[in-house]
Amino acid sequence: SAPLVAIIGRPNVGKSTLFNRLVGRREAIVEDKPGVTRDRLYGVGSWEGRHFLLVDTGGVDPSLDTGLPGDIRSQAEVAIEEADLILFVLDALEGATTVDFEIAAHLRRSGKPVLVAANKADSDRRELAAAALHELGLGEVHPISAAHGRNVGDFCDALLERL
Ligand code: GDP
Ligand code: MG
């Protein structure tokens, strides 16, 4: 079956924008177990003929996406446990916040492979700023612009290499 790729990150970093760009078609499936999985949105992504199941842990209801560490544990933990690969999304404009460091520590403890994206890297200048996010200690940081598509192809290449 298709590998499961979970998109993790605090609110407003662009998780859903990235999800929509990677899924590319509006066929996202919302699991209909009431109260349990309403906060997770699934879709099929494909690149170079390979398919993967994507989960947007911010989900369909933005009010559930508070991004607090407690919510990361309760809402996204199942997705992290199930996932074959985590896409950890950061905001290249804002840089690494305290919550980002907490999520990073949680992801390291999970032992799952993590691919780090510095989103909103819409320009060369912002791409340079994204390099500072190496400080999170999760390896290479991929500057992308989910909204404009910048570097998303290279990011997908890196994604396939990790699957
Ligand atoms: P989420 O809460 O993590 O799911 O974030 P959203 O996908 O809802 O995006 C939050 C905000 O960031 C929205 O206003 C998006 O339009 C904006 N955004 C997302 N990706 C980009 C990007 O690549 N560049 C810029 N400049 N804005 C973006
Ligand atoms: Mg969202």
Automatic annotation (TrEMBL):
Family: Belongs to the TRAFAC class TrmE-Era-EngA-EngB-Septin-like GTPase superfamily. EngA (Der) GTPase family.
Segments forming domain EngA-type G: 3-163
Subunit: Associates with the 50S ribosomal subunit.
Organism lineage string: Bacteria, Pseudomonadati, Myxococcota, Polyangia, Nannocystales
The protein's role, per its UniProt record: GTPase that plays an essential role in the late steps of ribosome biogenesis.
Organism whose genome encodes this protein: Enhygromyxa salina
Gene: der
Protein name: GTPase Der
Binding site for GTP 1: 9-16, 56-60, 119-122
